[in-house]
Amino acid sequence: HLRLVDYGDAEIVADLDRSIDTVARKVQEALEAGCIPITIGGFSPCASYAAIKGVSAATQGTIGVISLDAHCDNQDAEYGPKGSRAPGSATWERRMWDHFKNVDPTRHVEIGIRGPRNTRAQIQTYRDLGAHLYTAGKLREMGLEALCCEAIPRAFAETARTWLHLDMDVLDIS
Fold this sequence. Notes:
Largest sheet: 4 strands, parallel
Low-confidence stretches: none
Order of helices and strands: HHEHEHEHHE
Distance between the termini: 35 Å
Oligomer: single chain
Mean pLDDT: 93
């Protein structure tokens, strides 16, 4: 049996850095209390980036990542003329690797990438960092069981903790 506790909402305010810190602190507190946090939310800086910030702060040792996502979120700068390098929907993974040294890109498994928004440069970023990429096509080719048998150990090998990231677009890209 699982025992679940609702730890409450993290306050999201106009100040993005403050909101990220609030979410990260709640995730860190949950982990330090011996819990497994389940975060539900959408805006990448306050959901994905903030959650892994908390995981990183609470973890002594290497962290692996399993990310289920239809899009590569590893750009160096956001889309558009301003090209912000802050954690955002297209940059949070790159900032994760830059900012949290215990998150090991060679223990990163990306599953489900598909669609036209993913560029060759983004695919190459995963390869250059030693991350493991399984596109939606590769999943269909291998089958779920074979992919899991190959991919999951890569995210857990020699790690103190592994974080699961789920972006709902992996299920429905619209």
